[in-house]
Model the fold of this input.
Amino acid sequence: MLTYSFENIGSESMYEYIYKCIKMDILQKKLKPDEKLPSKRVFAKNLGVSIITIENAYAQLAAEGYIYSLPKRGYFVSNLKKQTIHPAKEKPLADQRPKNEPAYYADFVRNSVAPDTFPFSVWTRLLREVTATENELSLLSDTSVGGVLKLRQAIAEHLYQFRGMSVDPEQIIVGAGTQYLYSVIIQLLGRNHLYAVENPGYTRLTKIYESNDVKCCHIPMDDSGVMADFLKSSEADILHITPSHHFPTGIVMPVSRRYELLSWAAKQSERYIIEDDYDCEFRLFGKPIPTLLSIDVMEKVIYINTFAKSLAPTFRISYMVLPKHLVGRFYQKLGFYSCTVSSFEQFTLARFIAEGYFEKHINRMRTYYRKQRDTILMAIRESSLNPYVTILEEDSGLHFLMKVNTDVADAKLISAAKSAGIRISCVSNYYHDEQACETHMIIINYSGLEPEKVETAIERLSKCIVDVILQGK
Amino acid sequence: MLTYSFENIGSESMYEYIYKCIKMDILQKKLKPDEKLPSKRVFAKNLGVSIITIENAYAQLAAEGYIYSLPKRGYFVSNLKKQTIHPAKEKPLADQRPKNEPAYYADFVRNSVAPDTFPFSVWTRLLREVTATENELSLLSDTSVGGVLKLRQAIAEHLYQFRGMSVDPEQIIVGAGTQYLYSVIIQLLGRNHLYAVENPGYTRLTKIYESNDVKCCHIPMDDSGVMADFLKSSEADILHITPSHHFPTGIVMPVSRRYELLSWAAKQSERYIIEDDYDCEFRLFGKPIPTLLSIDVMEKVIYINTFAKSLAPTFRISYMVLPKHLVGRFYQKLGFYSCTVSSFEQFTLARFIAEGYFEKHINRMRTYYRKQRDTILMAIRESSLNPYVTILEEDSGLHFLMKVNTDVADAKLISAAKSAGIRISCVSNYYHDEQACETHMIIINYSGLEPEKVETAIERLSKCIVDVILQGK
Done:
């Protein structure tokens, strides 16, 4: 009969202790495969514990596969047939995460927002209201793939008021970030198409398509955006563009080019245009340009936008507007998915928009960014850099271009800035092909820079760039 | 010279009105392509407005492509070359969204939680604390793809305390739901592998793989889980299983089978096992079984778990634990992505776990579910259905099986329940192949049923099932 001493039981429960003792005996082969264990009643009496305790220990062992039971015969030790496992080869864990970038004094590359601009208190108040007043069942269970209806209604109303777009809430699909929505579009339209992207353009976009095993081609641009002739001579079916404000060149696509692209799309049933309107809210002058979607009568445009830019990057809430005829296909093919954004944040954002806070926030931010841009432009104008640079595309979005009149390589400009603690990038960094034209255009993304740092940042940048230019002569 | 009357200007700004008038004239061909527009100064004087106003109107028109400027010559009307666009064929918008299911009195299929069980007030308090005390910069800008470090540390600590798993926070990747993480795994391991899933199993899982253009095969199960022989004779490289609590059968995979599968994985460098531990927290009896990951010394297991089950389905926060040697590959291949969960929720969840609320919640819910299960079991025992059914696998997870002693087709059982307002499904619904064995096993998923409905729900279910059985005789 098995007997265990309870001397070393410590803080464990009785059943847990017995379970461990038996397990150890099985693993150490003191108990042999198919050996019968004592009956619960006898064992309990022997150890002076309750039958329930033994029952629990046996049940746990049985659930984990160490013992098995035969009806009316009792419990037996399993044959573990433990396979020999060779230990994993030692692999160095070093170098696995990218090393931290050096701490820059100012970063003109990274997309971020000034930390004290987000209306925390309004947001948390609305969140409290949501938890207090929304139907808890829908807060806790509504995971419909398109998103919470209230949010989609608020977005539709916003698009109507702010962008003149007339869309049905049913056409709107909410998702955790545009990167996620791209993968949804790929699943919807199919991986067998060739996707065309802008060159230059967001290099991440190419990475996302490639990571999803989608072939993509790069269409060169002229002053109006992607060139339709190149597009037509490509095999592409899907065109992914940022017509409101191209990154990095800042180009706003004129209406004529928009019609030309829509005409291209209309020629084949499987052709679509993904209109990425990522920072349309921050056009600093005049009204935003009408979207492709609003002049599209052929249902060829998938419109996509994000709150990551307009609220804060960590709000992973984006949405897309599907053409009506794709809504059915979406629910048929992908309706089994759950929405990737928590209902709490969806309901809160719905209120934030519907109660006018979003518009207020956008207006405040537009003023903030306009001031930020003007301060930076002024600082450049007053710096030693001024005679060597031309400023371009400063009106829309959250970056502008600074063309440096020099023959010095872009890489040299960037590394000079780096050694002065300033992070910059150049338009040439965003070309797909290596033989990119070195145009010496520095991108000044000013959205995240703290206002009090502007003066010193531009001073440092000016000094090092001017030094490099003069050395290059 | 262009002249416009300001009679109808309404609430528009002056520049907006002039912009619209000129645009209309261009669209109506009153202004011809390449026609020169009056100089700003002359035009302003003529209309009696400021030069700035005209400047703004021209700039807006130029930005939208209606006019263009030539250096030192002025502004000219663009040639819009407006393409003829044929209106989209009328397509009926009906039938696009799935029709709403009839409103059931009780739903034993859907995964949800009882609405009043979630600790709202604690959650919102922690969220407030987060917004008040966390570094705002990291709240608004930290979008690193692995997730917020504090959350990953809290998860690692939780896994150690609760599951005896020793993992490094660096191995943890946070994402918006397990469905999303599956697609990340596919991108990480590659689309060209054959993925093996359990049969029966979650039908959604097959859909997700297929929607991502990944081939998958279905491995039959015995009482210990997927059968290793079938797996070995397949071409599969990746095995996706739910060893802690299989859905729908409820099987807990014994240790011997676990070792057998690990041994299979160890034989080829590209083989991996995805261990889906989706409801391990809700084992209602005893300690949870050790995970595959914790007995894996070959770095072959990707562990995946979610807070959708343990908090509420609308919390789209899941995570996976990568083997150490895959961490580097992950950051190299997919490091350009942003995390899909907002920092606000990540920081809040980190506190929720670190301050012990998660454990408390789990314990409370376990008690709640145990009571819920017992009430339902009692109701079945006391019902007219009792002589016809056997209850199986009631100890782990949030569902159990009810085997009906009948020859009546499963579809008939389901439709009988439906007409009584009760939604049920059967194990046979979760087989991949059509010739699934009709075992008359009803799945009772009790997680979302309101306690006060239990009695009536079981009464209705009993009555209709017994009727069908008796009719079938």
